[in-house]
Amino acid sequence: MRKWFAAAVLLTVLPMSNAQRPAQSEWRAKLAESLPLLGHRNWILVVDSAYPLQSSLGVETVETNASQLEVVRTVIHEIDNTIHVRPDIFMDAELPFVPDEDAPGASDYRKEIGDLLHEYNIQHLPHEKIIGNIDEAGKTFHVLVLKTTMTVPYTSVFIRLNCKYWGDDAEKRMRVRMSNRSNP
CA-CA distance, 50 to 52, in Å (whole number)? Predict the structure, then answer.
């Protein structure tokens, strides 16, 4: 009888303990599957838990059930290890003005995300401007949204992918050559 009870308890507890694991492994698998297909002008968003489910056909949302910093760290690491894309990072201009009194943990997050992304150039734009850019991009390009457990507002990290092997300076030089060639 005791063995049957132990088995019943295990069968009840095991599914509960594994309930969070599928989301954790699924988002990582989705990122690994998507990244080779994504390129210049695609986006990866790492967003807080209140970020809305968008309805554009090009926007795909995945629940990570993971912390914001863990997901950002993983995404940046995976992008850095590709041969084809590099991150252009955008964050909300509102974040520096979010006080701990209204959003406990805001100051800690600002420090931690700053430390994590210190090697990258981050463009700060008003939230609505970034959302407008995402909406527009989603009409033509794929946007992967990774939703986290973060509960501090204006903490989302918006990553527009850019070409790793063709830099902005090379593009400008080519455009000048093209302009000079067509305008003798």
Answer: 6
